[in-house]
Amino acid sequence: MHIEFSAERPGATSTIALPVEKDGLDRLDLAGFDAVAQAIIRAAAKAARFDGEAAASAEAMTVTADAPLHVFLVGVGSGSDAEYERAGGALAARFLTSGVKAVAVDFGALGGAPAPLAAARFAAGAAQRAWRLDVYRTKLAERAKPTLSSLTLVGAPDGTQAAWAGFDAVTQGLALTRTLVAEPPNVIYPESFVARVQADVAGLGLEISVLGEAEMAALGMGALLGVSQGSVRDAQLLVLQWKGKGEGDPDLALVGKGVTFDTGGISLKPGPGMEDMKWDMGGAGAVVGAMKALALRKARANVVGVCGLVENMPDGNAQRPGDVVTSMSGQTIEILNTDAEGRLVLCDALTWVQKNYRPKTIVDLATLTGAMIVALGNEHGGCFANDDSLAEQLLAAGKSSGDLLWRFPLSDAYNKLIDSPIADMKNVGPRGAGSITAAQFLLRFIDKGVRWAHLDIAGMVWADKPGATWDKGATGFGVRLLDRFVADNFEG
Length: 492
What we know:
The protein is α/β, with parallel strands linked by helices. The protein has helices at residues 35-47, 81-95, 116-129, 160-182, 190-201, 213-218, 222-228, 282-296, 342-357, 370-376, 388-401, 412-415, 434-443, 479-489; strands at 2-6, 15-20, 57-64, 67-75, 102-106, 150-154, 207-211, 236-243, 252-262, 302-312, 324-326, 332-334, 361-366, 381-385, 405-407, 425-426, 451-456, 462-463, 473-474. It is elongated and about 85 Å long.
């Protein structure tokens, strides 16, 4: 969606949106409408029981200068940034397939200008909610096709355009993430994931390197390659580096699990719902989307993003329960369940990035455990950290960005649950505390002195119903969070 800015309402626009604060209908400035139009608008609001609650709406058809005018009242609640974002999303949801091509949003009707950040979040909510993937719909009815292509912000306060530039970068990063997550697994697999990202971020200043299976084997990445060995698709390690402060070790490493399709391997998943496992690369998707956003807005930070990309399949060469593999760190792992594969991918990626880039802080993201969905549903991602300040920074970034997190514990009592009788560790613990033991597994691969956090986002990367800024399907969870985390803590 194209976002424009104007001091006055575009003359040709036939659809006008008026933001209204909670219980602010009486304060609504309708000076641009004649008395009859004002009466119609207020009557429509009363009939709809519209009170300005965030994302609530009411509509009226009127006439001005002998031309029909569609007036859309949209609530912005108490006026917080998040409520403005929800209002923008509600507008996009209403008009995306309505036949309307352009909407003007008149902030002057509020009677008092919102903060620039709030107005920019309104635009971001609309642009993000408008994302769709329709490339495989060959018989989509005309009335179901998206029509809304532009949004003009009228009378937005000074500073809104500058704020929008940052949100635009995040929105473009989100689009990349959502596309990768939503694409079918015969289209997106490790090698095509790499090719798609390389093409999408070309020219943005990201340094990209790729390791294939031979290179990873030479480095001793037996945990990651053990997951891949049942697939005809070669595993890949994708590395994107952004040097926003120039040369030097990165301040931060982002590491993503990228299982482009997860059958469970020999420990085969049940058939019903297995099609959803195309989004088991949501962590890697979030990493590349965040890296694109950082590059687009020229973030003043040095960040490296690493994606371990594999396909977990159950052929005659697949890893077996009972196997023992040796990770790049030299630690050995007894495989009890081949469906606990994400941690095997991540542990080698974590070791690799520490050996090659020496980051002081690492955040990994993974759709790692079904136990996380049992614990938190689809409302929060799980956060595990070996450093309290890092956990607090991530939780704060989650609240301000809208990608919410909830912290879980780590302790030696849980760590002992993954001790193995024949290897250094086993890849699953008992049924209880499944998400925690998975995090404890990863912690064993973190070097002393490195701040580390693990985000289990299993319940967050895919939605069965629309949300404030997404439709059903891929949400792009993690991109907004990581961008905010970098902006708040690594850009001086």
